[in-house]
Amino acid sequence: MKFIAGGVAKSEVADTLRPLLREGDTVQVGTDMDAAALLRTGAADYYLGTCHTGAGASLGVLVGLLGSDRTHTFGRRVPSAADVQAAVDAGKVAFGFALDQVQDVVPLLWAALDAKRQG
Length: 119
Description:
Elements: E1 2-7, H1 10-17, E2 26-29, H2 32-41, E3 46-51, H3 60-66, E4 71-73, H4 81-89, E5 94-98, H5 102-118
Parallel strand pairs: 1-2, 1-3, 3-5, 4-5
């Protein structure tokens, strides 16, 4: 899987995700505009974006360019594993969350996305 980490806490997202990755998986730090282009062309699989609220700047451009059917915000709360699984099962590829939730949300997202890959 190829991930893009963006937003205010993009470095922290990438640093949290890297130890979880399997061989061949990648994470790069980028902008929301980079992410939109890479997701649209298939050069990236997922975007994890952060901002202060988890609902605004973390996904604004991606909602506009990819549509709300491919994006999901968890906002200011730490989602349950079931909430994360529901978003993944719905086909979301860009996820937004609050910058103070990175340590909680990234492992949940990783677990759901990795399980999806394994089928």
